Structure formats: structure tokens, C-alpha cells
Amino acid sequence: MYESNDQALRAVYQLISWRRYKEALEETQQLLRKQPEDPDLFALLGQIYLGMSDHEKALHWSDEALKQDPDHQMAWYIRIVVYYERDDDAAFYEALPEAQRIDPYETNYYFFHANLLNKKGKYKEAKEKILQALAIDSQSPMLLAILSYTEALLGNVSESHRLDRQAIQYDSENPQLLMYLAWAAGTRGDYKLQETYMRTVVRIDPDNKQHRDEYLSALQQSQWLYRAVLWPTKFLRRLKPWQILAIWIVAGIIFRPLLLGFIVLYIAAHWISKGIVHVRVFGWGRRGT
Amino acid sequence: MSDFDELAERRRKNLKLIQFNKDDQSLVESDKPKETFADVGGLEDVKKKIRMNFIMPLKQPELFAAYGKEAGGSLLLFGPPGCGKTFLARAVAGEIDANFMHIELQAILSMYAGQTEHNLHDIFEKARLNKPCVIFIDELDAMGGSRHQMRQHHDRMLVNQLLLELDGLQAQNDNVFVIGATNTPWYLDSALRRPGRFNHLVFVPPPEETERETILQLKLAGKPMGSIDLKKIAADTRLFSGADLEQLVQDAVESALERMFESGEIEPITQNDMKNALKSRKATTLEWFSTARNYATFSDVNKDYQVILDYMKKHGVK
Lengths: 289, 318
Known about the structure:
heterodimer; A: 289 residues; Serine Threonine Protein Phosphatase 5, Tetratricopeptide repeat; 0% strand; B: alpha/beta; Rossmann fold; 7 strands
């Protein structure tokens, strides 16, 4: 048994950092027996369940903490993360103002918000959110990385590159940060750098499926054959959806054989480059991830 | 019994097991367990590798010196949970007639949680006082996790201290040996893997079919048993760990107990109990292999985990 609650809490946080959630739960439940109505411990349970990706239980304990203390910062944070990870945008937007009122200096709220805006193609609004977060923490490498990505999406190549350099100076071992920088590099058309970043990401944390898939995709994009066929999409990406549709229709009417040839070439390039990547990573005769 | 055997036996009787006690946060001594390699069922390849790299150089240092190999270094056992790493470490201690100091997760945790009086240096000092001594660090990844992933200064201090103690072993301590065990070797700090530290990496796989049969026999021993085709059960429990097999037997025992409460008579454990238990269980090692494959494929610069891929290929693990 620990001599004080402080020591027991330190042990729980240590176990969480080792991702030993089962043991962390046991220790926290022991603490809860001594202080059965402590909102901090309820929130801690929520945090552990969040680590275990058990969103239901994380929300339950966050609710329990908020019953005791409606302004509990960690409990609100857990709620926001759960809604964000579940892609429950409506609940996220409903909870966000209250969470930010209680903890206005939590830069992750801006980060999550910017990510949602980027997903919807609202790059300018996303940039605004990131700049607000950077006003709170100007040296956050994660914020610099997502800003680099957003600038790349906005077509500001040199600014994106500058922010990439700045972010990497602060932290070069955080897989999430490196993945944003890889996306930024890919959007800028720097496929070699994208591959380098993703190789590091997958080495640090290969057990994350997104990391593996993104790495394989980066390897595929670094193939010249795939890039050559992909080249027109760089141009197409800048157009609005109705403009793309109009081009396809016109091309379909005027250059039908050419269009069919392009589609065949695109499909062939996709599968050939995918095959090359598979053999490079897994060898012959092994299934992928 | 020759004089030499008698002396060895007397020495063996005086050997101690030093363990961490969670309740009063102290190191306690008890009688040393008497396991040797003879008690470890199967794992012949693993035992051979440990003998060649760890035990023989200690027993016949001059022979190995002729080939430029030094005694000592430290041994790292890795593999899926519940496959006998702890038992194997105890058997190594038994093979070299050494005291055995068992450092578990709770002891490591207490170092982080601030009980500085139980720091790592004390543990190594205690081992030096009890030479020959094997320090067995279970869940080594908790103590020697990658320093890069540790944000807190005091977290890194423990890894640094471990490195210091291991280097100290090489420099000034003979007859103190360190064995580490981990389910997640990929989380270990790379500095721990340099020569003189944990340079012997040994993969401890799940038990093979004949070993599973032996384990099932042991777990069922002394219990009321009907006619059970253990060979068949062993064949159907591919990739099950020792712990999984124990759970399987527990489930079967519960079924027999339920029947006993209904009939009021002793009911033997039957083949059907075992089969039903098997239906609701699957090998817990599968999840480990899935993670291990990712590290072996994407993160294994030094090809340390090729052995896992080879094992998976040989046993058709998907």
C-alpha cells in the first residue's frame, strides 16, 4: 500500500503512461474506496477508459464527475475527446463552448476544432482557430504542424515549408506531429519528405493502423509511375466540384478514347505501384496489414 | 553422493529468494525455489540458446574465452504473456545455483511513486551482498522504457540509473547476473540493448503440442477426471499460452462443480467439459502476435524480431 494518496495517484499516472490501463483501473478503484465521492477520481477513471478506447465508460465517469463538480476541467475534456473521436460533430459543437468557458487556455480544443474544419474543407476558418491557439502557446510543435498542413491545403507552399522546419525543431519524435508534417509535405507535392516522415512515424508506432496505411500510401505516392499518372489530380484539386464534373463530361464527349485510356492507365498505375510497395514491405507471399 | 554434490546441495539449501512485498514496500527474503531446466517442459531451443550464451560461459569461462566470448552480460526474455518467462528465469537461477531476486511491476512502480528508499541502487547493492545472485526484472519495459517517450525527468532517471547499474555489473561486479523479461521488447530503450547490457535476446514462444499436453496433465493432476483425450485437447489449443491452458482447466472444473451441486456427488471432469471450455476461449497470444508482427515488419531496423516472423510463418499464424 502507498503511504499517501499522492503516491498512489502518481502510481496511477505512471501506469497510464505505460498504457497499463488494467492495473491503473485497479489502483484507482482502491483510491475510490477511500474517497467514494471524489470527482477527480471519477474523472481519472474516465481518463483511463478513454485510453482503453471505451468511450461509453469514459463518458459515464465524466458524467459522474460533472454531477459532483459541473465545472470539472478534465471531465469536460474527456467529453470533448470522446465526441471528437466518435465523429459526433453535433455533440462536439454543443459541448465545446462550455468546455472552452471552463478551460479557455486548453489549446487542444482549438486543435480538434481546426481538424474538423479542415475535414470539411474550411481551411481559412481552421487556420483562424490554430492562430488563436498559437496566441496561447506560440511554441506548440503540434499546432505548428497542423498549421503547416493547413497552409499547404491553402496553397501557401513556402509558409507551410517554413512552419514544417519550425515544428520539427521543437519535436521530431511525436508520431502524430510527424504525420501532420507528412500530410503537409504530400500536399505540397514533396513526396520524398512525406515518405521520410511516414517511415519515422511507422517505426515509432507501427501498431496504429492509420500509421501503417498512411506509410504504405506514402510509399505508393513516392513511385514515379503513380506520381506521373496522379499529376493531373494536382491541378484538378484546385477546382470546384462542378468544374471537375464539367471537365469530365466535356472530355467524355470529345476525347472518349483518351479518357478511357487515362482511366485504364490510372487503375493500372494504382495496382502496379501498390504491388511494388507490398513486395518491398512484406516480401512475396505475405498478406499485408 | 560425492563431496562435491553434497557441497552443492548444501549451498543450494542456503540460497534465497528476495522479493518485493507490496504491503510494506520492502524487500523480503524467502526460501529459494528449486526449479532447474529439468522442470521446464519443452522449450528445448530456448534452453539450448540460454545454455550456450549465458550458463556455459559462466560455468566454463576458459573454454569460451578461447573463442573470444566473455561470461556475463544480461539476458532478455521476450514473448507473449503467460508463456513461462518467469519460470524460465527461476530455472536459470537454479541452473547456476544463485540467489534469486525477483523485481516485479509493483516494485518498479514504487520507485516511480516516490519511495526513494527502495531505489534501484539498493536492489543492486543487495544483490552484490548476496552473490552469486540473479536479479530478475519482470516487466522490464516499465523500468527501461524508451527514454524518448518519457517526458518527465524522473522517469528518465530510472532508465539512466539502470544503465549505470548494468555498466557497473560489467566493471566491478562478478557473479551478479541480470535477467529481464518483457512482453513488449519494442518499448525498451535502445541503449539497454548495447553490448554488455541486455545483449542476449531470447524469444519464449507459446508451448508446442507435446508441451501443452504436459501442462494440461499438470493442471489436471489431483482433480477428479473422467476419460479425457489430452492429446486431442492439446492439438486443438494451438498457440494457447500456459496461462490460457490454466484458464481452460478452470472453466472445465467449474462445469464439473456445477454438475456436482446438481447431483450431490463428486462429478469427474470430462472430455465434454474441456471441449465446451475450449469453445468459449481463444489463444490470448494472438493479439500479441498481431502487435509483434507490426513491430517486426515496420520497426525492426536490427532484425531482432525476425524470429517472430519466422515463428508465425512456421505455425501459420495469420
